[in-house]
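Final report, results section. Input specification for complex C-07:
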Amino acid sequence: MSQIARYRGFPVVLLAAALVLAACASGGGEATADGERELVFSVQTAPNSFDPAQLADGSQAYAWNSIFDTLLFRDLMTGEIQPNAAESWEYNEDGTRLTLRLRDDMTFSDGDPVTADAVVATMERSRDTPGTVQNKFQYVTAVSAPDDYTVVIEFERFDPQFISELYQNAGVIADPDTFGDDRGATEPIGSGAYTLDTAATVPGDTYVLRKREDHWNADAHPFTTVTIRVLQDPTAALNALQAGEIDAASVPPQLLPQVGDESTYTHTEFPAQSVMYLDILDRGGEDFPALGDQRVRQAINYAIDREGIVTGLLGGVGIPTNQVFNPQGEVYDEALNDTYPYDPERGRRLVEEAGHTGEVFQVPSTYLSTTFEAALSDAFESIGLGIEWVPVPPQQAQSAHRSGDYGMSFQVTPYTSDVADVINHFGQGGYANPMNHTDPTLDELIGEISATVDQEAALPIFRRLNEYVVEQAFEVPIAFNMTTWVTRDGVVMADNGSSRQTVRQFTIAG
Amino acid sequence: MSTDRDHGSTTAEAASTGAVAAGHAVPRMPMWQRVLRDPQAVITLGTLIVIMLLGALAPFITPYGPNQTDLHAVNAPAGTPGYPLGADESGRDILTRLLHSINTATVSALIGAATALVVGATAGLVGGYFGTRTRAVTEWMFNLVMTFPGVLLLIVLMPVTGGDYRWTMLIFGVLLSPGIYRIVRNLVVGVKNELYVDAARVSGLTDLRILGRHVFFVVRGPIIIATAFMAGSAISVQSGLAFLGVGSREIPSFGAMISSGFRNLYIAPTQFLWPSLLLGLITTSLVLLGNALRDVVEGSKPAPAKVGAGQRAEVVADAEDAAAGTPALLDIHDLAISYPDPAGKQREVVRGLSLRIERGQTVGLVGESGSGKTQTAFATLGVLPDEAVITRGSIRFEGRELIGLTDAQLRPLRGKAIAYVPQEPMSNLDPSYQVGTQLVEDVRWALGLDGPEAKRRVLALLERCGITDPERTFRAYPHEISGGMAQRVLVAGAVASRPKLLIADEPTTALDVTVQAEILDLLRDLQAELGMAILLVTHNFGVVADICDHVAVMQAGRIVEVGEVARLFAEPRHEYTRMLLGSILDEKTVRADPPLVASEEGIRP
Amino acid sequence: MLLYILRRLGAGAVLTVLVTLITFLLLSTSLDDVAATILGQSATPETIAALMADRGWDRPVAVQYAEWLVGAVQGDFGQSVYNALPVGPTVLQRLGVTLSLIVPALLITVLISVLLGVWAASRGGVADRLAQVISLIGNILPALLLAIGLVVVLAVQLSWLPATGYTAPADDVLAWMRSITMPVIVLVIGGVASMAAQVRGRMIDELRRDYVRTRRTRGASTSSIVFKHALRNAGSPALTVMSLEFIQMFGGALIIEQVFALPGYGSYAFNASMQGDVPVIMGVTVWAVLLVTAVNLATDIANGLLNPKARVH
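Structure output:
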């Protein structure tokens, strides 16, 4: 029987090995004596290329935002546009020329000074290179540098969105020396507060950023090292947070109760990071006549139990809404949220009136829609319509949305700026309006917005537009998604829900 | 070189040979009847049927649809009214989804297994039946299929399949088909040259009908086994892909449920548990069912017994009761050995056998196959199979009781005082070691010699046993030497220690006629030289006449007549002896029983 | 022998070309989707067409494949269409992670399986039933549940081991061991469940062979019979089982990599497939086929060493 003991001993041996290994446990980012301070946080998607013409927004921005300076910056607390690499900016009267004045104390990480020529070169390249940034320059006719620190951008017509692009990927300044070289995409050279430590970085898994102490804005970046870890699985991210391997992570609502001890962890809620809505693609009813009928679109809005979805499916971490504009922006109108109370009976009557009862719509089923499909199917059934979810692999999600094969698609869209949101949701060529639907009222309102260079003056037009599109029910807004960041070890969020992804969101408590 | 990568197919190939053999040996009881007699098959099959029925009856069991949500029931705990197992993160009834997931699993298994069967069997029939060129093509294609990383392919092909799990399972079925292909191809190749196919061909049946009629009958057993395993793989893969989020989320499946439960693990751990348990139950049942089916078709694999425990005996051996005077070299008294029959009842194959061998005697033990000769020899050596039980009697060697001794207790006798020469020389040498290595092991034990001296001794023995190039034979592996040479090697190993008793079990049966005579000559010479006694088990009176001085005739587990050879040949007293002697002439040329079944002799009902 | 290896490798190369050709043909149908995914919200028919032209995806498939093949033969597998990283070095790096996980797992699996299987087959009775129960439990126990349980207890509660992440052995051997301990445990438990049963079955067969009986009559000791003879002969089929287990672990590592957030081959392949990152999928496929070919070849050669009949001359 001694043999039994021997073989049974195996798990014990493994456990013992684990114990030995455990003796040398290490923690996440902690302060060291000489003022070194490390930040480790997790994101779900790995940054793509660092080629300035291929930068993507969203959580990918954490990395490139640190490596490149953007011309402008959006304040994380107030949402105001602030100077950054550009000290000042000015439009001419009709908004066809933008003049930017650059700081004169910026250098690239290879030591070269940053001049207006670098900005011009980056912008011209992005405009001429097919990629993620290209169409942001669609109205730009010329970019020039009258002197070392002045950049002049000429437009074919006023582009109300453009100024907000300058704190995003269209506003980066890259070193023109890297342009002819493939390595620029993987070993970027920028003028940002951090450089990418390519030796310590494991692409797709861990990105290590080292602070440039000589950066003009070094004081705004308290962390000497920032490590971005790609943890696709939220449970894995939570485990890493609890094990002290990371200092901060965005935790989905289902997992929040599990985070534990309030004294160890700081929870920061960002009320509205994105809007979740059922996008009506065929607003003119070209291929799906039912959707061209305002009554049907309104009926769908009545069918959605937004409160139920927020409490049931978002774990209460969300805000029901009837409109798509950012609740922290200027356009958002609280009163509009009573437009479509949950009233399937009324919806059913509207559908009957319109004579479309019994119609079934195909909608792409993507990783975004998974959780909500069942609830939406029920909602459609409750007003006498139906949904058939068609599985679409992630790499086809974008083309399915644009294909014209579907009358509707489920979307979650992050905020950029109110202007951009208008164009995105209702403008021709806007992402949410791929069939380029418009009508005289929209034409008029968007035309006015596009012609008004002074944002303050345009505000009433924005509000009228919001009212109009809610009444027309061009989209079926469901809820604003809240995000909860959980931080520990003295790391706190310095952000009021600005929807910007930058390491400046993180700071040290006190 | 074996390039067989697929364990499904190797086991099934083993099963097939078993099936062919069993087809001749076991009286034809329909397979389904045999399945119904196997408790493991019945329980697992029953479990699967109950689960499938539950799935099929889902609409009648629960009031909900699989994707019907109730936002107020989100994450409802088990036991909530209307939600016996609770509801998931979208407020869908977990019980309902479990039941519908069963249907998804069933469909996956059916599509996956059916595709593999159709593709694999068709290609196997074609590749096995037609010429080598066709086979080379099919072989190449299936090697291609096998090398492709399966799950990767399924994920890559998602744009093609549109994420529909049924298409995915169709492709997976193709990936599984090499296993079936190999089973069918091997069986067809084996069966093709058998007489009845040739006969059928002569009688004018078309190729296709030949394949259909004869081959399918032979392959169905192994294929049914493989199907159970393939169904299990298909369900596992479908669940795995659904867990990863490949495919439609609308389709309820265990993988999707596990994934959803995993997201909610901390809120409602049981959500993760139910689908995991049911999935585990289904796949485990399929694996156990496959094993049970294999046992039914192939004959069940015996339970292992402790190696070295010695043979089983129900006799209380009274070691004290030594016979008066000088004991015989070997004294077997009233020996009875029984085996369980397929129904589990003990059946005696040796029934009260008594036999004495004096020092230096050569005794022939003669009888038809199945009469218990080999079992008697094994019992004396202490190497009866685990199923056999000695129910009474005693075996004494130089007065010492051997029954009830363990291997360790027998070791001082084995290879020293008692030696053994088996019937089938090739299978009795370890194929993995050089002949010399094995003999050195014998010599070291028997004579206590060390390395170089043992080797010298082995070479001398080989030479003595008539091997012309001992050095070469020493280095050869068993498969590199002829049967006659192998038998000389075995004789050499047996006589290394100058044993007092050599038990030779049909030592010449498996050999060519000319070699037979040489081996008998060798045994006779050695006997004269070493003065050992020989118990020669044989069915052949010619051999007895050639070498023995005494003979015992066995019939149905008993000795019917003993005597000196000359006397017995001259005036056989028992009718059975007379009958055997009368058939000598026929037997010399045609042997009735196949030589390979020596180890099973007497087991068959 | 050398000729044999060369012939096998040649067959592997032809196979690789065929497999990649099929893969490429299948993938080429969805290049416009890839372009749309890269462009994200800025995708319009015009920008997609421009990007396709820029990347050369609008050329005939045959030309694109030939170009890829010429590059691949020279060791240049192109670069990811998303993050522009060269595929060749990244695949190798990811392969290294997964192999540094699987190889120890396989070795431990083999060790435990052999001991357990031999023990069950040579002792029978209670030992045998115990081994079968262990196999059954390993089969039923969901790997995911086990993984999560280990993380919660060993990493989160006790802080003995890292919950996520990977350290290369070249950087820090101890940290590497710590990072692979839990994934290896999960892989080993699943592996032992299937492999121990196989070893047991082979050993039972082997122990009933004629030569074992003959060796017993020659006075061979129990340990010689079990370990020197039966195990050696069971080793050859067990080796085949081992190579299958290796390939299975290689494919099954994906889920483990996701749970423990390890930057391995599985998650690399999975992400590339989900995004339609054609050069990465091609690179991943090539190396998977090469690896499987190499493992099979190594198995056959090792088989030859164990089993004289299968020896190549």
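DSSP finds 24 helices and eleven strands in chain B. Chain B has a mean pLDDT of 79. This concludes the modelling results for the funded period.
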